[in-house]
UniProtKB/TrEMBL annotation:
The keyword Hydrolase applies. Keywords: Hydrolase. Pfam families: Hydrolase (PF00702). It comes from the Bacteria. It comes from Streptomyces axinellae. PANTHER family: HALOACID DEHALOGENASE, TYPE II (AFU_ORTHOLOGUE AFUA_2G07750)-RELATED, HYDROLASE, HALOACID DELAHOGENASE-RELATED. This is Hydrolase.
Length: 235
C-alpha cells in the first residue's frame, strides 16, 4: 500500500510523522451526487396527483428534520406501501428511468479525469436493481456500478461499506467515498475506515455541509474540484 507521511502534534513541543494510506480508489454515491432527483420526485408527484412543488417542499421539510426523504410520501398518503405503489407504477407504464439528462454536467468529465489520473472509480448507492441496470447502460467512466438492492444491504448499514471494500478490492484507508448525505454517506463510511468527501449538492449536501458534527476529510462543490484537491493534498 502506498503511504504518505504527515506531521502531527503529539505531547507539547513534540511532532511525529504519521503514515497515511494514499487514496487509490474513489467510490461515488448516486442520487444528488451523480444524478438529479428531479425526475424521481416528479414521477411520484404525478402519480399521487399533487403539485410537484408541494412534494418538493415536503421533501425539504423532512430533510431539515433529519428524517427519511420517503417520509414526504407518507405525509401525503399516511400508511402508503411504497413497494406496492412502485409495483403499481410499473404496471401503469411509469417505470423508473434514467438517461444522460439526469446526470449533473460535471459527472462524465469529472469521473473520466480521475480515471485518466490513475484512480479506480466505482459507483455504489442506495438504488433499485433497475436503477443499477440503467446506470450501467449510460456507460459511465467507472470500473463498477452497484446498488443497494443488488447487494441486499443499504446505507447507512456498515455492511454496505464493507461490501464497497470487497468489490473495490482496496484497503479501507485508500478508498475515498463521495456523497451528499452526512448520515448515510459520511458518518458510516468513516466508521469502517474509509476516507470521505461531502459534495455540496442536493438538499442534504447544502443543508448539513457546515454542521459541526459533519466532519468529512474534504468538501467539494463540483466533481471538477476533486482531482485538484487530491493532488494539492498529496492524497
Amino acid at each position: 500500500m502506498r503511504t504518505r507521511g504527515v506531521l502531527v502534534k503529539g505531547r507539547p513541543g513534540v511532532w511525529t510523522r504519521r503514515l497515511l494510506a494514499m487514496i487509490t480508489t474513489i467510490v461515488f454515491d448516486v442520487g444528488e451526487t451523480l444524478t438529479r432527483d428531479d425526475r424521481h420526485w416528479g414521477r411520484w408527484a404525478d402519480w399521487l396527483d399533487i403539485p410537484r412543488h408541494t412534494l418538493s417542499a415536503l421533501v425539504g421539510a423532512v430533510v431539515a428534520q433529519g428524517r427519511d426523504n420517503a417520509d414526504a410520501l407518507r405525509l401525503i398518503r399516511p400508511g402508503i406501501d411504497l413497494r406496492a405503489e412502485r409495483a403499481e407504477m410499473e404496471r401503469a407504464g411509469l417505470s423508473e428511468f434514467l438517461d444522460d439528462s439526469d446526470l449533473y454536467e460535471d459527472v462524465r468529465p469529472g469521473l473520466a479525469a480521475l480515471r485518466d489520473a490513475g484512480y479506480a472509480v466505482h459507483v455504489a448507492g442506495n438504488q433499485t436493481a433497475r436503477a443499477g441496470g440503467l446506470l450501467r447502460a449510460l456507460d459511465l467512466p467507472a470500473d463498477s456500478i452497484s446498488t443497494s438492492a443488488e447487494w441486499g444491504v443499504a446505507k447507512p448499514d456498515p455492511d454496505f461499506f464493507e461490501r464497497v471494500i470487497r468489490v473495490t478490492g482496496a484497503a479501507p484507508a485508500s478508498i475515498l467515498y463521495v456523497g451528499d448525505h452526512p448520515a448515510n454517506d459520511i458518518v458510516p463510511a468513516k466508521r469502517v475506515g474509509l476516507r470521505t468527501c461531502l459534495i455540496r449538492r442536493g438538499p442534504w449536501g447544502h443543508l448539513w455541509a457546515d454542521e459541526p458534527d459533519v466532519t468529512p476529510d474534504w468538501h467539494i462543490d463540483s466533481h471538477h474540484d476533486l482531482l485538484p484537491l487530491l493532488a494539492s493534498s498529496g492524497a
